[in-house]
Amino acid sequence: MATSPCSSSGVSSSSSSGLGADAGLEIRTRSVEQTLVPLVSQITTLINHKDKPKRSDKTLQAIQRVGQAVNLAVGRFVTVGEAIANENHELKEEMSVACIEARRAGETIAQLTDVASLDHPESDSHITIFTDKTGVVKAARLLLSSVTKVLVLADRIVIKQIITSRNKVLATMEQLEKVSSFQEFVQIFSQFGNEMVEFAHLTGDRQNDLKDEKKKARMAASRAVLEKCTMMLLTASKTCLRHPDCESARINKDGVFHRMRLALEQVIEIVTDSRPNGESEMAPISIYSGIKEFKNKVEGLRENLYFLSKENLSTMLEVILEHTEDFTDSAYTSHEHREHILELSKQAKMELEQLVSVWMQAQNQKTKDLMEDLEVAILKTCQCMNELKREVHSAATSLAADLLKYHTDHMVLKALKITGVEGNLEAVAEYTCKLSEQKEQLVEMCRLLRHVSGTEPLEITCIHAEDTFQVTGPQIISAAETLALHPSSKIAKENLEVFCEAWESQLSDMSLLLREINDVFEGRRGKKAKHNANLKALKPVKLDSEEQAKIAKLGLELHLLTSDVDSETEKWEDQENDIVQHGQGMSSMAYSMYLFTRGEGLLKTTQDLFHQAEIFATEGTKLASALHALSDQVRDDDKPLLLLEAEKLISMCKQLQATAKASAQGKSATFTKVDACILKTRNVMTLLCQLLPLCCKLLRKNKAGNGCLKPAPPWKEDRIRTGTNARSSERRVETFGIKSLENHVTNMTFLDSK
Which of 243, 370, 543, 662 could join 547 via S-S bond, C-beta 3.0 to 4.6 A? Predict the structure, then answer.
């Protein structure tokens, strides 16, 4: 498989070819990164050819065809870039310079590879790829750098669209805050809804395109806030209009507007990679990440006794132990857990003292006995830290499990609704105190879970959950007070219902989060949530208990298949392989669909499930493309089987996509569609379980037989997308952006130069 040419700070250089791009160009999205892959592959093919001693006529013709194809592709690519420049005057100067450089580099490559008609291409009388050893490398560097710059500049247009959309939403929100009549409110809210849908689509696409998993999680959290707050804004505003003199109604509405503005601001921070007033983002430090870093430093002493000071190690341990005070000082930590954490903290200090003592001696006198003593000290220190990690994990997760079980009946919320309708202010005050206590418990639970979440995306999910409980608790209280003051108000009752549902939904999400945290700790999985954050806000249609019972067996089969796929992907040495990545993504999404059959997880409605099925099918199609790429690297006798399986996968994914997109009216038809989507997903997962070991076997077979795989061929024809996408992007100049540029790179037909 061709590896990605890009890194977070730009395009990485190739040691064999000397390729590299402008280090100042940071590539933050997968679309830009993946668009560059075929370009790097093609140029690498050219550069590798210049060093081959044997040059047959067929080889010379192939080199010339590749050089011409690169030049033609660059020409079409530059045409799109120039059109973008004309449509966006603020980028025109930079884009024009990058386009000129790219065109010049493409022409140079075409000239250097014009060798097929020459009798002696090695002759000094003709400057070619063979005589000018560095010329083609320089041209390739310039081409890669300029194409990258065009793509990154085009990406700014996407960012600009999101900012413009956010500004429209903010302007309409300001109008909504000031309205004084229902008629005016309904009219403006309709406009607001359309603007929020546009913003959701733009940010959803951006979220899926982001390379940084931490930013993806932050974006998902912000978008979830906006989705939930849209309904809250509707009912809170209507309540305020119905009861304009009610202070609690005003407080309730102001809280929603404030939270939405914060979420909108965070989206823009993520998209533009900036902070207000130039502040740097302070990443929350968890006990898990602290222990991981500490252990890495300790184990590094085996290789180098001098790479850090004892003060550094002592400081790192102090920081970890300070964080354990969040557990030992918590009123909700059991006495047993508190005592164990304190004992292990004391032991960790002692183990580090012993380690430092042996380490200092070993620096002065590196004897065999001292090195053996150092190894023992390292092992004992790391073992102690592992036990501390296990203890804080147990403390946090057992507390969470107990609290979630205790609050599943939602008794306090039910009581607030009843006493509010009765107009019983005294009883409402009593239950708001109980809700405040419950909020403090859940906030503390989130803080402790963050320490043991295990991954940055899950840490961010814990922080988001903490914020949600912090904000939603007081909002429920103000909504309940409003209802108690106006017990006959239907809109006040509806408003309280909306905020209570948000609380219940967050509690439900916490159960899934707890399961994911436990899965990470036990080494099973930890990325199930990432594919589900771009769910559309749709009418909530859920399966009833009878339907869940009917589909339970199919759901269980799907669950078992996700475990099988996870087991197969873990066997791969290269976890960054495209086939592994797509397989893991599909397994994660299938697991979410299994949770839906149980009435759990992030997929709340049937429409959520259908949307997830579409994304799952798209990921399957990407996997099929990766299989085609692999088929070009395996031996000829293995190729037919692999291609047959890839075509089978494409067919099954198309069927699933058609099923997910088909309309279904009525309860019975909707359930039939759910059943069909789960069944087709199961069939794809069954095929995936067969594909993964086959691909792994073929890769090992090729490595054993050849020492390495065949080099990836030049850009291949994408027969499905060629033509239509390119033509449509030329027709619609106003929509120029990354997508149209991608089409002009990926849709090029290049001949295989064997």
Answer: 543
Alpha-carbon dihedral sign for residues 74, 78, 79, 84: positive
Q: How far apart are CA 662 and CA 673, in angstroms?
A: 8
Supply the DSSP symbol for 210. B
Asked if residues 483 and 421 have their Cβ atoms less than 8 Å apart, the reply is yes
User: Please, which residues have CB within 8 angstroms of residue 277's CB and are 6 or more apart in sequence?
Assistant: none
Cα radius of gyration rounded to whole Å, the chain? 30
Strand-pair partners of 11: 6
Q: Which of 264, 272, 92 is nearest to 736 (CA)?
A: 92
Hey, which CATH number is domain 545-703, 3.40.50.150, 3.20.20.100, 3.40.50.300, 1.20.120.230?
1.20.120.230
Annotated domain spans of the chain: 30-117+131-156, 160-272, 287-400, 545-703
Q: Mind listing the pLDDT tens digit for each residue in 77-134?
A: 788 888 888 888 888 888 889 889 888 888 888 888 776 555 554 555 455 656 566 7
How confident is the model over 707-732, as a mean pLDDT?
33
Tell me how far the alpha carbon of residue 283 is from its chain's centroid: 18
- d(Cα 420, Cα 479) in Å, to the nearest integer? 9
How deeply is 181 buried, as exposed, middle or buried, from its count of CB atoms within 10 A (0-12, 13-18, 19+)? Answer: exposed
Architecture in CATH for domain 287-400: Up-down Bundle (1.20)
Whether 61 has a pLDDT exceeding 50, the answer reads yes
The arithmetic mean of pLDDT across residues 664-679, rounded, is 86
The C-alpha angle with vertex 358 and arms to 353 and 364, in degrees rounded to 5, equals: 130
State the CATH class of domain 160-272: mainly alpha
Give the pLDDT mean for 331-352. 95
Backbone angles phi, psi at 6, to 5 degrees: -115, 155
User: Is the distance from CB of 532 to CB of 602 less than 8 angstroms?
Assistant: yes
> 253 and 297 in contact (C-beta within 8 Å)?
no
Distance of CA 500 to the CA centre of its chain: 29
Q: How confident is the model at residue 628 (pLDDT cuts 50, 70, 90)?
A: confident
CATH of domain 30-117+131-156: 1.20.120.230
Concatenate the DSSP letters of all residues of 595-650 into one string: HHHTT-SS--SHHHHHHHHHHHHHHHHHHHHHHHHHHTTS-TTTHHHHHHHHHHHH
Identity of the amino acid at 529: A
Same CATH fold, 287-400 and 160-272? yes
Write the pLDDT tens digit of every residue in 568-586.
Answer: 888 888 888 889 889 988 9
Task: State the Cα–Cα distance between residues 242 and 256, nearest whole angstrom.
Answer: 17
Banded pLDDT at 732 (limits 50, 70, 90) = very low
Whose CA is closest to 240, among 189, 197, 169, 167? Answer: 189
- What residue has token string 């791969």? 572
- The pLDDT tens digits for 214-240 are 899 999 999 999 988 988 999 999 999
Average of per-residue pLDDT across 199-205: 88
pLDDT digits (tens, 9 = 90+) for 363-395: 888 788 888 999 999 999 999 999 999 999 999
Token match 């660059």: residue? 74
Placement of tokens 């006959």 in the chain: 488
